[in-house]
Design brief:
Length: 149
């Protein structure tokens, strides 16, 4: 059985970022370091680690508001190692972060899904809001959302 948790140690985070790069950036010729951004320290990170190998990664960040608990969370950098796709790991890690968001008072989750991931997110209760952007001139993304209330 696979379970999601938070990376804690430097080694955890090194392996977490390595998988993010391998799955989400390297196939499109992006440079090492492009798997990180300025919101790493203010986000909640999750991964699935099994036998000391990171198999899936995902991050929850918050849409800033002026007062009170964040109303909207955003899922970013979701990736599952190629040899473990289709085994339910994506649903496990997504559910883990959605539950954390609910505990923090988040009312809805948004994300920008790659076209090839639309059916996965629909199966997790997300709906397409609009076509959003074209990454690197070739990867179409769609804004999706899910109400957590």
């Amino acid at each position: 059985m696979f379970t999601a948790s938070h990376p804690v140690s430097k080694e955890d985070f090194d392996n977490y970022y390595a998988l993010r790069y391998t799955v989400l950036r390297k196939p499109w010729g992006q440079s090492l370091g492009s798997e990180k951004d300025e919101q790493e320290d203010s986000s909640i990170h999750a991964f699935i680690k099994h036998n000391n190998e990171v198999l899936a990664v995902c991050r929850l960040q918050f849409i800033p508001i002026d007062f009170g608990a964040p109303q909207t969370g955003q899922i970013r950098y979701m990736g599952v190692r190629a040899d473990h796709q289709g085994k339910g790991l994506g649903k496990i890690i997504l559910s883990f972060l959605e539950n954390e968001a609910k505990e923090l008072g988040v009312k809805e989750i948004i994300l920008h899904a790659r076209e090839n991931a639309l059916e996965f997110y629909k199966s997790c209760g997300y709906s397409i809001t609009e076509k959003s952007y074209l990454m690197w001139g070739e990867i179409q993304h769609y804004l999706m959302k899910k109400n957590l209330s």
